[in-house]
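Researcher: We're reviewing a set of sequences before deciding which ones to prioritize for further study. For each one, I'd like a predicted 3D structure that I can look through quickly. This is ATP-dependent RNA helicase RhlE. If possible, include the structure in token form so it fits the rest of the review sheet.
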Amino acid sequence: MDFASLGLIDPLLRAVAEQGYDRPSPIQAQAIPAVLGGSDVMAAAQTGTGKTAGFTLPLLQRLEPGKPAASRQVRALVLTPTRELAAQVGESVAEYGKYLPALRSAVVFGGVNINPQINRLRGGVDVLVATPGRLLDLYQQKAMSFDQLEILVLDEADRMLDMGFIHDIRKVLRLLPKQRQTLMFSATFSNEIRTLAKTLVRSPKEIDISPRNSTAERVRQWVVTVDKRHKAALLTHLIGEQQWFQVLVFTRTKHGANRLAKQLESAGIEAVAIHGNKSQNARTRALAGFKSGDVRALVATDIAARGLDIDQLPQVVNFDLPNVAEDYVHRIGRTGRAGADGEAVSLVSGEDQKLLKGIERLIKQPIERRQVDNFEPPAVADIPDEREPRSRPNGSRSGSRSGPRSDSASPNKGGQRRSAPRGADGKPAPRRRRRSGGGGGQRSGNGGNRASRG
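Model: Here's the predicted structure for ATP-dependent RNA helicase RhlE, in token form for your review sheet.
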């Protein structure tokens, strides 16, 4: 099967050929004819499957014969959850529509000056790619109207729900004509997505390309067990030893991404953090540097990484395992694309074991465990019980410290070892037994930081 057999017109086929594609991916083979036929569509497709072209190409073809958009009118609206994904979709519209000069498009999102966007919309656009918040801001300023809207696309609908955009989506829907074609693309058909779909699509054609929660066969997955305190040192070691020159690293929080990027930089590895608190210009520069090779490690939160378009990404590292097992599938799906080999490495400490088991249950396969010399986690028997003094034969210490030594690993503030208290006669004072219970629990190792969205 080739693209011509899907019914695409010559200007689109020419643009596709120039992008180097000769055969459609599975999502494209099913979505393009369905959209061209005018049906509403619900499609489940993972990142990297070609879904953007799956709706962009037929959308452009359906708009091409119509009248150009009038002043401040929008004929097709594509909603995306992040700025990066909006920019990526906007690029696809421009690339595939390059031989349809009459069609006009625009991309709008927050974090940048709104005035140029208002000016761009004044003459009307055929395709508008937008994030929900900025779209509503522009509408309130009367920068656009949806009276002529023909097609609505929700890209990565599951992530929009995760990010709390449901209220904004409902506000947008109230502004749109009821007679329209609606396309929903999501990683999975979760119950929440199906509930949302009931208010959006009419008798949709369902397309489910990847079995839910499957992982790419060409991605080598392995886990390194390590003490939590030594994760940054281990990552630095792996980048050097394995000669990784382009690695996408996932952390759970924005603060963690910033901290890790600084640690890698101090070790001589070019690294940049990318998350929701970064300005759009900073995020764009970080991604450009990563693609060009000037940045060796891109440290990202899940939400910030959504929509990143990186060809042939060889390595993904889970510095922190995700709290939601399904996000593991999304993360590692960024490598091993288009028949290329990929590698996904997870750094797992003792407190991550429950999350790891949940991931293995989800993907229905065990993940290979490996250990790296000098980074082995301490065995349970080697961890002293602070509540009871341990008796040691001949006064020797049992167990040994594993992994690289670090000041931060010292049990006392300032790295000083606490001496046993002594009485007036110079002899060791009797040790007091700690009372159990009563809120004497151990502090969490996360430093009290709240998890925050990227």
